[in-house]
Specification:
The structure holds two protein chains of two kinds. Chain A is α/β, with parallel strands linked by helices. Chain A contains two helices and seven strands, in the order ββαββββαβ. In chain A, the strands form two sheets. Chain A has a five-stranded mixed sheet with strand order 1-2-5-4-3. In chain B, 46% of the residues lie in helices and 12% in strands. In chain B, helix 5 runs antiparallel to helix 12 and helix 7 runs antiparallel to helix 12. Chain B is globular, with a radius of gyration of 23 Å. Classes of the chains: A alpha/beta, B alpha+beta. At the A-B interface, strand 3, strand 4 and helix 2 of A face strand 6, strand 7, strand 8 and helix 14 of B.
């Protein structure tokens, strides 16, 4: 299964972990790679599109005997570090396409592309019309721009909302509160 | 499993609107003509099952334009869950799809267990299946009751909610909660199954097929119901797959696909059940698929119950002290247990670095949970693949050229739960 992907447009690498196949695709070729997956490899259903923000990934560092360099706040029990440093990610954002091949021997694959803030990806709406809402949701919440999407506007947040709430630099409680003392 | 080629097609070609696949757009010339009336359907219309707003363009009674506006119920579950430890996340997940709550809980717990590489006791596997199937019946009953209510069959609503209440009673008996149970834990179940449950559940299994016969007698020979549902809101198999549809909406369009059979999880490969498939892709078939599924779910519950009755006294949660809370009574006698308890409750357990995507067949279709872990006690990113979210994408295709009165039947038949759509 994995070696079928060597011919995919924009193929970079693949990896199998926890029983799941992840194929990394060059961001410039994602639409061709999706067409290839649908037409040549039989992945007929787009299950999901999800973007991940890796800003600050691994920053807590490895915990020592008394916590990390920045110390450890006893009022926040989760401020101690990690047991091992996670792998370094190539860029800030990853966009993941979960595909499903509905056939007698079903298969799933995850296509991963990497983009920096401000870089855009080709929309896969021409390949799967169902990508419409999925891409709009990731645009809305994560700020990933999909070129060629016919209707790229906010979906879940208000039309005039500022910022993208699922980004790691978007604060918790980033919503303006009325009647608070700050006003 | 593929679409059988010899069957007649639901319609030729594709009816997915272009260029925007999820909304029908009226051309400016037609709008200029003055025949088009734009109305707001929702967000607080009783038939939208929550807060769904459809901007509908009407030419007489015909729907010529439609756009779904969602997000009224967006609560930021994904952002909130990133701030909570793994085990606190279990409380969030059932509230996303508040009708199919048990499936949400299940998919989250399965995803965390996959990340941790945990084995769970057999009793927990079968009990999870039993509750997931009871919840499927519950969800389909809510669908059936509300859909029939919207088309004027008020009595159906009361009958469906009578049986729904039986399921909630069973849920209360086992979990202490009627909905949003938090009964599934990472590693198994929160508590052992109470002794009286087996008999109560057995009598439900015996009662439910009779109730289903009653529903069929009430609806399936009802001329109004048939007229309002047959041939309405059709969706072809190719369009359904292109629009990422799943679950009953897909099976009503003739695609023989069910994750419980085709990618089995829990112990679905050890139970005997049929996957109902219908071929016309209309509102009627979507209702029939769910009716048949309830019957199959009763059969699965029956088989789970037989297994569970033989597992009395067996463990219901994994014995892994780094993940599972120690038994309450040990806290008074064992220092190690006390330390484990304290660590688990304050810091929580750590998941290894990695990413998992787990999918299950929820009452609404393919329910997925995608988790990225940094190696800490909290998820780095968590995302739910919501079947209702995908189902709403088919609204414009189904409503293409239909009448405004049918819109209510169509939206109801896609069975989108707005909590699941907006998350």
């Amino acid at each position: 299964m994995a070696n079928d992907w060597g011919d995919a447009p924009g193929y970079v690498s693949h990896e199998e972990r926890l029983g799941e196949l992840t194929v990394t695709i060059d961001a410039a070729h994602i639409r061709e790679a999706c067409e290839f997956a649908r037409d040549e490899l039989g992945f007929n259903l787009l299950s999901d599109i999800v973007a991940v923000d890796y800003l600050g990934w691994g920053r807590p560092g490895v915990s020592g005997y008394i916590g990390t360099d920045s110390g450890r706040d006893i009022n926040f029990p989760m401020t101690q570090g990690l047991q091992v440093l996670p792998r370094v990610m190539p860029k800030r954002f990853a966009v993941k396409y979960h595909l499903l091949a509905m056939r007698d021997r079903p298969a799933r694959v995850r296509l991963t592309t990497w983009v920096e803030d401000g870089e855009s990806l080709d929309s896969v709406v021409p390949v799967w019309p169902g990508a419409d809402f999925f891409e709009r949701e990731q645009f809305d919440l994560m700020g990933i721009v999909f070129d060629g999407h016919p209707n790229l506007k906010r979906l879940l947040m208000d039309d005039d909302w500022e910022g993208h709430p699922l980004r790691k630099d978007y604060p918790i409680g980033g919503e303006p509160v009325r009647f608070s003392e700050a006003e | 499993m593929a679409v059988a080629p010899e069957k007649p097609k639901i319609y030729e070609g594709s009816r997915i609107p272009s260029p925007v696949p999820t909304s029908l757009i009226v051309s400016p010339e037609r709008r200029e003509s003055g025949d088009i009336m734009q109305i707001n359907f929702g967000p607080n219309h009783p038939s939208t099952h929550g807060v769904l707003r459809l901007i509908v363009d009407l030419d007489g009674e015909e729907v010529v334009g439609i756009e779904a506006v969602i997000g009224y119920l967006h609560t930021g579950f994904e952002k909130s869950m990133e701030q909570k430890t793994w085990w606190k996340g279990i409380t969030f997940s059932p509230r996303i799809d508040y009708v199919g709550y048990q499936s949400n809980e299940l998919v989250y717990v399965l995803a965390v267990e996959k990340l941790l590489g945990m084995e769970i006791p057999e009793k927990a596997v079968w009990m999870r299946m039993l509750l997931a199937e009871l919840n499927r019946i519950h969800s389909h009953l809510v669908f059936l009751g509300t859909s029939a209510l919207e088309l004027g069959a008020i009595s159906m609503f009361w009958y469906c909610f009578r049986e729904r209440d039986m399921i909630l009673d069973l849920s209360e008996m086992v979990t202490g909660q009627r909905m949003h149970t938090r009964y599934f834990q990472v590693g198994g179940l929160a508590e052992d199954i109470p002794e009286g449950f087996y008999d109560e559940c057995r009598s439900f299994v015996e009662w439910m097929p009779k109730a289903l016969d009653d529903y069929l007698a009430l609806l399936d020979r009802n001329g109004i119901w048939l007229e309002r549902t047959r041939g309405v809101g059709r969706l072809s198999a190719d369009d359904a797959i292109a629009l990422s549809q799943s679950g009953p909406n897909l099976r009503a369009s003739g695609v023989d696909w069910d994750l419980r059979r085709d990618q089995p999880y829990l112990a679905y490969d050890q139970v005997d059940f049929r996957v109902p498939v219908y071929e016309n892709g209309d509102v009627y078939d979507r209702y029939r698929v769910r009716m048949d599924e309830m019957r199959e779910s009763v059969r699965i519950v029956d088989q789970c119950l037989r297994r569970l009755e033989r597992m009395r006294g067996r463990p219901w949660i994994a014995d892994d002290r780094k993940v599972v809370l120690p038994p309450r009574e040990e806290l008074h006698t064992s220092m190690e247990s006390l330390i484990h308890h304290f660590k688990l409750v304050t810091e929580g357990f750590r998941g290894p670095e990695g990413e998992v995507f787990v999918t299950i067949e929820s009452p609404r279709g393919e329910q997925g949970c995608y988790i990225v872990s940094q190696g800490g006690p909290k998820p780095w990113r968590i995302h739910f693949r919501a079947p209702s979210f995908a189902a709403l994408e088919a609204t414009a295709t189904c409503a293409n050229g239909s009448l405004v009165a049918d819109l209510i039947a169509i939206v109801g038949s896609l069975d989108a739960v707005m909590g699941d759509v907006d998350r």
